[in-house]
Design goal:
The protein is an alpha/beta fold and 246 residues long. The chain contains 7 helices and 8 strands. Helix 2 (105-116) packs across helix 3.
Length: 246
């Protein structure tokens, strides 16, 4: 959808700009609460100078979207994009630790592209359909995919260990991370949550970006669940604007 056809007069819009694309979400008040209005994404031409959302601001928006405001638990959130993954550790509703590293979904696409000698787009389609299906890939390709995943696993492990071994200001241990929550388009990789859970020995789940907006048991939004995972920052920003302008 082109931005030329959208009037940004509504104050309940969240706009998330990354290095490759921008996404927007409109939240509309209704008699039954909040509903999803317009939404869309736009690929940013290579070399443009658009202002990218800072990791801290992006993390705050994600937390606002996927955790209830009264949630006092301690969680690790992984925002897996195309080129980068953000790690946020949240406790009592506050981001206590944030980190960004250059591993994302494109890395796995490029492995498939190289190993299967196909186009990038076809490799992307294969990745989204088959994920970590050992029956589909030959052993060499599958092991290469696991090698790529081990980079992600090691980055998660380092942050996980850092959090649980470092003392706070009162020289007390930090609360244990209860689960890992995945969001971002890269989290749609089939088998990824099971892989992380098995390696980290902790519960892993995909984020529910509608948790503070609507009950998906009563109303199914137009946006698919898989697509919604990449809209968490935009939804969080829209929620912030929604509350400010009520």
């Amino acid at each position: 959808m082109s931005y030329n056809n959208i009037m940004f007069k509504n104050p309940h819009i969240g706009l998330d700009i990354s290095d490759e694309s921008s996404k927007f979400v409109e939240l509309v008040p209704s008699k039954n609460g909040i509903k999803l209005g317009k939404y869309g994404k736009y690929q940013i031409p290579f070399g443009s100078a658009m202002p990218v959302l800072s990791p801290e601001r992006k993390g705050q928006a994600i937390v606002r979207a996927i955790l209830k405001k009264d949630d006092m638990g301690t969680y690790m959130i992984l925002d897996i994009g195309k080129k980068f993954t953000g790690i946020y550790i949240v406790s009592h509703g506050r981001i206590m630790f944030s980190s960004l590293f250059p591993v994302g979904g494109n890395m796995f696409t490029k492995i498939i592209e190289r190993k299967l000698k196909t186009s990038f787009q076809e490799a992307e389609n294969i990745k989204m359909k088959h994920g970590l299906d050992r029956q589909f890939f030959n052993e060499k390709t599958f092991l290469t995919l696991l090698d790529g995943l081990s980079v992600l696993r090691d980055e998660i492990s380092r942050r996980f260990l850092y959090w649980h071994t470092r003392r706070n200001e009162e020289n007390k241990g930090r609360p244990q991370i209860e689960k890992i929550i995945l969001c971002g388009g890269g989290s749609n990789l089939v088998g990824l949550s099971e892989y992380i859970s098995a390696n980290m020995k902790i519960r892993v789940e995909l984020a529910n970006v509608w948790i503070n907006i609507l009950d998906i048991k009563k109303h199914i939004p137009e946006m698919s669940f898989e697509e919604s995972l990449s809209y968490a920052p935009a939804i969080g920003l829209a929620l912030e604007n929604f509350k400010k302008n009520r």
